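Revision sheet: structure tokens.
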Amino acid sequence: MPAFFGLAATAYAIASACGLALTFDGSYYLFRALDSQQPVTPYERLINVPLQLPVLTVSSLTDDPRLLVPAFSLPYLLLPLVSLLACWWIVRDRQPRLFVWPVLGIGLVALPAQPMPVSESLMASQLTWPILLAVLTGYRRRDWLLVVAFGSALALAHPLAVLLLAGLATLAFVIWLARRGTAQGYLGWAAALAALALAALLRTLLSFELNADHLDEPFVTTYRAATAGNVRIMLVLAAAGCLSLLAGSALRGRGAAAWARRSEALAALLLLVAGIALVPWAADPHAWRRALEYRQVVPVSAAFVMTLALADAWLLGALRRPAPAPPDTPIQGEPDGHRPVRSWIVVSQGAVLLAVLATCSLSWRGLTAQLESAMGPGAATCTSVESLDWARNTPLDQWAVTSTSLIVQGRGPTRIVAPSCSVDFSPGLAIISSHGTYTPYDRTWFDLSGLAVLKPEPAAYFEVKIVSPYKAGEAHSVTVRVRDAEGGMATGYRGTIHFTSSDPAAVLPPDYTFTLKDAGLHYFMYQAVLWTPGTQWLAATDSSDPAITGRQDGIEVEQPPQAT
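Predicted:
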């Protein structure tokens, strides 16, 4: 166990130091938490409150991003390690052989989602394992506090908690029915888990979460996108390895110890190769960008491993005749004295966890270093991510790149990288341009005054253009540019303009209200017709402020040639 937990702790420490929790939505969580100095809880997923309190505490002492980023990442990355420690605490003196299943469920099959540690669906799967093992290994009074703590955290994490807690409550109730004479306490566990499931359901309904995770997209489509390439190879090998491991328990129960060892040795080989297949995947951020989709696959993969853990517990007798193991029994000790194969599986999976997460973390650190370089001296105040070829189809090619670009600069950023720079910055800094989510340039924890240059100046006058000379009676286009006092484009203008002309017979464009897409410029295609020959003018005036106006003088309107 020291070897496995040492490898796992090293993996999560490296990931925390590299800021792996900033990937995808993580940077937005951190930016919003720092900016408002309050925990960010999307869709009221309150599991984020205790996980973000450490970084808020650190932010009151320092504004150095080299300290804030690890302080934010570490709690999210410690959650799976805490769950694994709780699993070992539960099984160590009763059924230590079952520990291999949470190692595979929290580790191997969930690894493609762990580059996005802020995913609440991933957390839900991780928090379920200690409760499941507590139910499988027999009721003990000492486990009450642990089961309630993990169950409460699960209820606050994700809508999946409703199904997970209801399933665990049903399992505890079935065991109580099957072993009514010896399963004292199981009915209480079933009632407690059912109450938590009901609480999770009420929380989900009250926070309107049912539409939060793109449930309208077919799962098959998501699965295919999330498991392309090496990830699918890993899942196939992992499934074969898990089934071979379960077959070993079945063979040992029939007295075929030699065949059981062969089956478990095959399982160890398959599971190791499955983990190795993820290393080249982790080295390519274009590949593990699909972690965004794989987080929706994790509950299915975890459910498969949990089902096998339940079957293994039955084969090992944990559900039929639980008996404590001697204190000095090794984790996977075998009655025939052979080397415990499951111990090798656990340790090898610790090495896989370290190799994959460290590779992902270093890849992510390389991406953020390139991002910092792209905002170096001489760079534009706003740079579109589309112009950064190296960032395409990576985790930085995403809406949250704006938050990442601000965080890595510290409390006083002077440049940003955004999905698009052609947005309206007049209300504030566009953090999520597609949702119109802005943060003001002042009155926040971040000092964004260095980015106020993105905020357009107010409109001062209009620049009106139409062709001249001009044949009377012909339809022509009018161009209106909104200018600020310095002559720049007033891209934030949202007023309504009205057209007038010195030609009393003119047909003019209707009143028009400028929009975000106009960005201070609008073409009125073939909407102006002047009829009176001579020198005319055409003007545009703001309907609310007549001082904002502009006109083109000297439009020569020519008499059309007479028909013969």
